[in-house]
Design brief:
The protein has helices spanning 17-32, 48-56, 72-78, 152-160, and strands at residues 2-4, 7-9, 38-39, 62-65, 81-82, 90-94, 116-120, 129-134, 142-146, 169-173, 177-181, 186-189. The protein is α/β, with parallel strands linked by helices. Helix 1 crosses helix 2. The chain is globular. The termini are far apart.
């Protein structure tokens, strides 16, 4: 609960440190084992996007809500700095729309200064888009079926990561789960 004046406001459990720690662990697993579905801790709202944002955002990081997915109340709780997509640390966007942004790719001396894309999709467990993934953290080749990701994201991602170590990292998020795709992962549409 949060006190606002003399009124108590009931907050979703995802705003508690315990659930944010569990979510952070799931995000580490998602990026360590690309392509593997990581279920995020249940928070009552079952909104994985909100769980990720609540975990990663604070007053020190910037966020671009590229497709206007967040309401004003959520922005207040996140406390993140609003930013344009070309300057943001994190970019929230819809996967069903072709990407129309130019995220930060980092520099040769600071590749970690690139953006992380949080891309909302319909499903990370099944769907019509079939991907093959390979690279660090994946034993052999992994196949992942997705729903709600425009294939243009993958060709654009290829351009963004073409000058490795520059590039972007991606988190594909549905209602309750996340799949990480670091810049080191090779992705191909089957």
């Amino acid at each position: 609960m949060l006190m606002q004046g003399a009124t108590m406001i009931e907050l979703d459990a995802i705003w508690t440190p315990a659930l944010q720690q569990q979510c952070y662990r799931s995000l580490l697993q998602a990026m360590s084992y690309p392509g593997q579905v990581q279920r995020l801790p249940a928070s009552g709202s079952e909104n994985a996007t909100l769980a990720i944002l609540a975990t990663l955002m604070d007053a020190e990081v910037s966020l671009s809500d590229h497709d206007c997915l967040l309401d004003q109340d959520t922005w207040l709780l996140l406390q993140a700095q609003k930013s344009s997509s070309d300057q943001a640390d994190f970019i929230l966007c819809r996967g069903d729309l072709a990407p129309a942004l130019n995220p930060r790719l980092g520099t040769l001396s600071s590749p970690e200064r690139s953006a992380t894309l949080i891309v909302r999709v319909a499903s990370v467990n099944d769907g019509n888009l079939k991907l093959k993934m390979a690279g660090p953290g994946i034993k052999g080749v992994l196949q992942r079926d997705l729903e709600g990701l425009d294939p243009a994201w993958l060709s654009q991602r290829q351009q963004w990561i073409s000058a490795f170590p520059l590039g972007v990292d991606m988190l594909l998020v549905d209602q309750s789960s996340v799949v990480g795709i670091p810049r080191t992962t090779q992705v191909e549409v089957c």
